[in-house]
C-alpha cells in the first residue's frame, strides 16, 4: 500500500469513527413525550404537587372550554373568538384562569400553547383595560358585627350547632384563619395554656410544603373568649381527637369527618343573614379581613398584625384592611 493509500484509509477510518461516536460523546436521544403512563404511587406524587382546589378548577375550566370547542390543539384564532364572545360576560379573572388551564393542558401534551401567542396576549390586555380587573372585596366581620352574630345565634340556633358556629367565628376571627385552615385543624393542633391557646397551622395557602406556623390566641373576657368557645364545643361534641370542626345534623348531633371549607363560608353568610345583613356581601374570608381591619383600627403595628395573619408583606396586608369610615383629617 502506497503512502497516499495509507493516508486515505486513515482519513476514512477517522470519519467512520466520527459518524459512529461511542461512550459519553454519543449525542443524547431526543426526550420522549410525557405519556402519563405512571404507576399509581408516582401519579399520586404528581397530583400532590397541586392543591385539590387547583385540580378541581382545572377540570372545571377544561370542561367549560371543551363545551365551547376550545381544546389544547385549537389555533389562536379560535381562542380569540372565545375571548371575544365571553369578554364582559364573565369576570376577567375567570377568563384568565381558564386560559392558564388551557396553557397547562397544551404543555402536558407537548403542544405549542395558543395562549402564549401575541394576538391572544394582546386581546387579554385589551379586555383588562376595557372591563377592568377590580376584585370583589367582601365585607369584613368586625368586632361589633361578630358580637351581634353571637347574640342572635345563641337565641335562634340549637345548642350544639351554635357552640360549633361560635367556636369557628371566634377562632377564625382572632386567628385571622382562612376557611381551609379552620377546617384542617385537628385536636392535636391545639395546646391550651394559662393565658390562651397555641394553634398550629400545619399547612396553608402560602405554606404548601407544610413547614407549619403556630399562632397564639389570647384569652378574652366574658363569653366572647375564643379559647373558652373552643373548649365548650369540644366538650359538647365529645371530641377528643381528629378534626376539631365537624358537621352537625338537623337533630343537633355531631357527625364524623371534618367540616368542608364551603360550610365555613355558609356559616358566616347565615350568621350575617340572621342579623339582617346582606349575606352576599360576606364570605369565609370576612373573618380574616375583619381581624386585619379591627387590628388596624385599634392601632396595632403592621408587623403585629402580620404575626397573626401571616401576610408576606404590608402590600398584601393592606388589601385586607377595609375602610370602615373615612378617618383622614382635613388639611384645611
Percent strand equals 5-15%
The overall average pLDDT, rounded, is 84
Structurally, the number of domains stands at 2
Order of helices and strands: HHHHHHHHHEEEHEEHHHH
C-alpha end-to-end distance: 108 Å
SS class: mainly alpha
The CATH topology of the largest domain: hpI Integrase, Chain A
Principal-axes geometry comes out as globular
* Low-pLDDT sequence parts: 10-35
InterPro entries: DNA_brk_join_enz (IPR011010), Integrase-like_cat_sf (IPR013762), Integrase_catalytic (IPR002104), Integrase_recombinase_N (IPR010998), Phage_Integrase-like_Recomb (IPR052925)
Keywords: DNA recombination, DNA-binding
Protein name: Tyr recombinase domain-containing protein
GO molecular function: DNA binding
General description of the model:
This protein is mainly alpha-helical and about 325 residues long. The protein folds into two domains: about 50-130, Tyrosine recombinase, N-terminal domain (DNA polymerase, domain 1, Orthogonal Bundle), CATH 1.10.150.130; about 145-320, Intergrase catalytic core (hpI Integrase, Chain A). About 50% of the residues lie in helices and about 5% in strands. The chain contains 14 helices and five strands. It has helices at about 5-20, 40-50, 50-65, 75-85, 90-110, 120-130, 145-155, 160-175, 180-185, 225-235, 260-275, 285-295, 300-310, 315-320; strands spanning about 190, 195-200, 215-220, 245-250, 255-260. The strands form two sheets. The protein has a three-stranded antiparallel sheet with strand order 1-2-3, with no helix packed on it. The chain has a two-stranded antiparallel ribbon with strand order 4-5. Helix 8 (about 160-175) packs across helix 12 (about 285-295). The termini are far apart. The model is unreliable at about 10-35 (pLDDT under 50). One of its GO terms (molecular function) is DNA binding. This is Tyr recombinase domain-containing protein. Keywords: DNA recombination, DNA-binding. InterPro entries: DNA_brk_join_enz, Integrase-like_cat_sf, Integrase_catalytic, Integrase_recombinase_N, Phage_Integrase-like_Recomb.
